[in-house]
Amino acid sequence: MDITLIQGAISSMSSITEIAKSLIELKSISEVKAKSIELLSVAVEAQERALAARKDQAAMIEEIDRLKKELMRRETWDSEKERYVLQDMTVGSPACVMKKSKSRGEAPQWYCANCFSNGKASILCFHRSASGLAVYACNSCPSKIRPPEGKPVSHVYSHLI
Predict the structure, then answer these.
(1) Closest by alpha carbon to 100, among 122, 80, 83, 86?
(2) Where are the domains of the chain?
């Protein structure tokens, strides 16, 4: 929040008080009218500054809420990613797989190592390439890996922690 907005609003309120006090001492109607116009002008300025400060406060509250949600998402992701390990499926083709000890009965899945490192669990899906080769491809990025020859996905879990 811009502290100058608050200070300006307080200053304007002080000016309103001073102008109101000086109204009592005026003797002619024209002096009263002039001071009344000045008073109204300062009051409008104070209101504008107060509204601007309120708008800044609302924006900060919104930003704090957004940051809290992001922090919660990251904390959740940090605990979830501890369940996985980076595993070379074939030479130079890594994927993230669940640690055997962390499985909660889920079916074996491979996650894209690229997306996983960016905080997203994107499952590598089985496809057949145009040439008929088996390929696991990420639906979120262009990553693809070929499964080990003659071994099902479940072989990955047989030697994990």
Answers:
(1) 83
(2) 3-79, 82-159
- Whether pTM > 0.85 for this model: the answer is no
CB atoms within 10 A of CB 80: 12
How many residues are there in the chain?
A: 161
- Round to whole Å and give the CA distance between 72 and 78: 10
d(CA 23, CA 37): 11
Strands, sheet with 144-145, edge to edge from the N-terminal-most edge strand: 124-128, 134-138, 144-145
* Range scoring the smallest mean pLDDT among 28-32, 54-58, 120-124, 139-143: 28-32
The angle formed by the CA atoms of residues 141, 128 and 112, to the nearest 5 degrees, is: 30
